[in-house]
Amino acid sequence: MKIALLGYGKMGKAIEALLSEYGHTCVGKFNSENPATVEKLSQADVAIEFSTPEQCSKNIALCFEANVPVVVGTTAWYGQYDEVISKMKSDSAILSATNFSIGVQITFHINKELARVMSKFPEYTASIEEIHHTAKLDKPSGTAITLAEGILENTPNLSSWKLDEVNEQEKGRKGKIGEDMLTISALRLPDVPGTHTVRYTSEIDTIELKHEAHNRKGFAAGAIRAAEFLYGKSGVYTMKDVLNL
Q1: Residues marked as catalytic
Q2: pTM value?
Q3: At 82, is the pLDDT very low, low, confident or very high (cuts 50, 70, 90)?
Q4: SS3 content of the chain, % helix, strand, coil (to 5)
Q5: Which domains, ranges and CATH numbers included, belong to the chain?
Q6: Residue 204: phi, psi to the nearest 5?
């Protein structure tokens, strides 16, 4: 396939480095210095979008106009999701995810199953901790929010999540923010690809579900796999469809 990269930061470069392994080519690398156009995008079979929350919806609209399926990995734009989807054409295709790592997608699946079980044991308090590199500005991460949503969907006594920012000295701090609130702690440290931990803590013990990324290759490989899935399709998809979870 011919792939266009919308956004050429760390993730864009990681995806480009893997394309040849999967038998694909890059036909465009677009950023603020080289903005995408409908004409340029029309040369691609699929676009992969990892830009900024501010640019994301504009890039998706360009893909719809160019009739190019788009895989979206940018986070912190989901407040515009319904509006963006409403502008799809009948032959448009989009697949979005807060995290394309296969391991993370499996973790999302297990997280929901674990939440269903743990909801029967109110003596355990659920919490989430996420760690990312210092260049990641959105807090909490999209991955942490997806984990939180999976817990909230399956835990009747929790109503919403709340960000509880901590620093390195406070790492691992336990604390409640309202009996019906799920706490998400966000840390930003140098040169870490990302770690997400779901904890259930009681007076007696602690249960943890943890995913730790070793590098960005897993995210890049998952995005390419998503692009392969989306090629030739129309409609709205997620990584659940790709992995048949």
Answers
A1: 132, 136
A2: 0.77
A3: very high
A4: 35, 25, 40
A5: 2-100+217-243 (3.40.50.720), 102-212 (3.30.360.10)
A6: -95, -40
